[in-house]
UniProtKB/TrEMBL annotation:
UniProt similarity note: Belongs to the peptidase S33 family.
InterPro entries: AB_hydrolase_1, AB_hydrolase_fold, Peptidase_S33
Gene Ontology MF: a single term: aminopeptidase activity
Organism: Anaerofustis stercorihominis DSM 17244
Domain AB hydrolase-1: 28-136
Highest rank taxon of the organism: Bacteria
Protein name: Hydrolase, alpha/beta domain protein
Gene Ontology BP annotations: proteolysis
Alphabetically ordered keywords of this record: Hydrolase
Amino acid sequence: MHINEQSKIEINGKPQYISIRAQKDNLPLLLYLHGGPGDSALPLVLKYNRELEEHFTVVVWEQRGAGKSYYDFKNDEITIDMFLEDIYSLSKLLTKKFNQKKIYLLGHSWGAVLGLKFTEKHPEMVIKYIGCGQVVNMKKSCQAAYDFALDHANEKEAERLKKINCSYNDNGWLKDLLYVTKQVVKNKGSLYGKRNYNSLITPFIFSKYYSIMDLYNRQKGSLQSIEYLWQELMDINFENQRSFKILVIFIEGRYDNHVSSALAKKYFDTIESEKEFYWFERSCHFPQWSENDKFNDLIIKLLD
């Protein structure tokens, strides 16, 4: 029986949007954690990763404050731990609903911060963890992205970049961060072969699940999440975490200069527990969408 449930449910006191899709009953649960913070992904997963629904019950969660789960953060003390609590509550709800013991967890970028942290904290709930565009050490990653931008800058851009403190802890940090990111994207360091994100925006505009208000909220939610969470995100560093209780898998775009894949590989080599690493040779930060067929095939092969 085909499953297609699109709904808002309350998770830890906040209404949050969940998409649950599968081609038949009793398929293992796969929870997708989108990037950002605040960068919802439902229309992209539906466009590029639909094949996964033949093998998994695919759950795409629009995290608190993101996309169709947008709300104003101003009265909340927003922390990374809140998102981990949300994942815990959601996972419990899903495993109960579908009568399963554990989930497959797939995290991209910011979602890979949440995913790896959750895997550390609750290995009993995860079958396998898949990190895509894995963040390892955020300060080092930001430095690498900045260096890439500077290496590809013209004179005027270099002048602007040289005024930027890429630890992003001074007054104009948000503008600086957005400028560096724009330079990385423009120089094909983020989306393989492209100088902009237009192809990642179009599926949202044409999605039957996204209204005009949702599109507007998506923009607001993305900026708000960065504002509230970036300073805590800058302290993320997994380098001393060398062992996990379950299999961890990293999927990395060879040319990712947005979140350094070179750093991810370096860290991966230090992990002493069960692990697998896959390079995607025609990808930067988005292998799941740049090489979606290869990505989908790999995820399906990871099934026990």
